[in-house]
Write a structure and sequence with these properties.
alpha/beta; seven-stranded mixed sheet; Aspartate Aminotransferase, domain 1; 381 residues; 2 domains; 41% helix; globular; 13 helices; Aspartate Aminotransferase, domain 2
Length: 381
């Protein structure tokens, strides 16, 4: 099976560990094990429980307790409609592996996490890219979706990423319902990667999940972005019971179970999710203010301000340099690390993704490095 190179992950794999100021990171500043267990109010008791865990296989779909807590993140789900996976990336892959056939068509927003459109393409499906454009606030055009859906043969799935990576755009409930109406008319699933759901910037309210709005909606989530626990490598699929059963059938070929300690720590986090969300929203609000202030001072940098999540797309198009060269030189000459827009597709040349949920001092120093690099470029051109 041929599959396209994964642009963003290849870039991260090549350069992330050499960065002095990693402002490409997409997770909110990660928690330590001590910080997480302190939320339980009994670190010693928690450590004793961890030490007593037998390192055999865990429950295949995830522990019942974990699945109940995940289900509580939604309005209409129960534990039988949750399947635990190895990260959100495992959830997306397993969903498409289980449902997509070579004769199907898939429509995906673009740019997004490349997996959502490259995996079904590798499975032989016809893939249509539903492009997000800055002049529309990086929200897609519903009329374009209607046209794509009409021309698609055997439309099986529409793939969303809400909130969006890399742009930080947010589809509200009204918009999502318009997508649902189109999907429903074709009997298509809507798979929504919701790994940033819960990190809305302005309203303070969590955007409704696709599974609470549509009977053929499928949500994927993880402990990585919102809960600052990427090291657990734990995600999930939430959806109709028949989808969960199909995914469970295919899962036997990819995963036996997730780790029992990971399962335990995820339960601790979800029991204390309000405190983690309060911490993480505060980090985002403070850092977004830092980033906004910086952009206001940089005459040749523009953006569409993000509405949710931990990332934003910055436009450096006034500088006549390819985005990969821009980001590579920035890293080599200053230690600051961004993701080039072209890693998301050739249409996004001149852009770069920044992650602003890291340590505030790292963000400030990284932005200072970009400013110094821009002054250097201005002297060259």
């Amino acid at each position: 099976m041929r599959i396209e190179q994964f642009g963003v992950e290849e870039w991260m794999n090549a350069y992330e560990m050499t960065a002095k100021y990693n402002i490409a990171e997409t997770c909110v500043e990660s928690l330590t094990v001590e910080e997480l267990l302190s939320l339980s109010g009994n670190i010693e008791g928690s450590l004793d429980e961890i030490c007593s865990i037998k390192l055999t296989y865990g429950e295949i779909p995830g522990s019942a307790e974990l699945r109940r807590y995940i289900a509580s993140l939604y309005g209409r789900m129960n534990e039988e409609q949750i399947l635990v996976t190895q990260g959100g990336i495992g959830a997306n892959f397993l969903t498409q592996f289980s449902l997509i056939e070579p004769q199907d068509s898939v429509i995906s927003v673009y740019p997004t996490y490349q997996q959502l459109y490259s995996v079904p393409k590798a499975f032989g499906a016809q893939v249509y890219l539903w492009q997000l454009r800055p002049e529309n606030g990086f929200l897609p055009d519903v009329e374009e979706l209607k046209a794509m859906a009409k021309s698609a043969k055997n439309l099986k799935m529409i793939c969303l990423n809400n909130p969006n990576n890399p742009t930080g755009a947010l589809m509200d409930e009204k918009f999502i319902k318009e997508v649902i109406e189109i999907a429903d008319s074709f009997g298509a699933y809507v798979l929504c990667d919701e790994v940033y759901r819960g990190l809305e910037h302005e309203t303070g309210n969590i955007t409704p999940s696709i599974v609470d709005l549509y009977e053929r909606g499928i949500s994927t989530g993880s402990m990585s972005k919102v809960f600052s626990l990427a090291g657990l490598r734990l995600g999930w699929i939430a959806g109709p019971i028949e989808v969960i059963r199909e995914c469970f059938l295919h899962r036997d070929y990819t995963t036996i179970s997730c780790g029992r300690i990971d399962d335990y720590l995820a339960v601790v986090a979800l029991k204390n999710r309000d405190r983690i969300l309060e911490r993480n929203r505060k980090i985002i609000q403070e850092n977004l203010a830092i980033l906004t202030s910086w952009i206001e001072k940089e005459d040749h940098v523009s953006w569409v301000p993000p509405k949710a999540g931990t990332t934003a797309f910055l436009n450096f198009g006034e500088y006549d340099i390819p985005s990969r060269d821009f980001c590579r030189r920035l890293l080599n000459e200053t230690g600051a690390f961004l993701v080039p827009g072209s890693a998301f597709g050739p249409e996004f040349e001149g852009w770069a993704r920044i992650g602003f949920a890291c340590d505030s001092e790292v963000l400030r120093k990284g932005l200072d490095c970009i400013s110094a690099f821009l002054r250097k470029l201005e002297g060259e051109y």
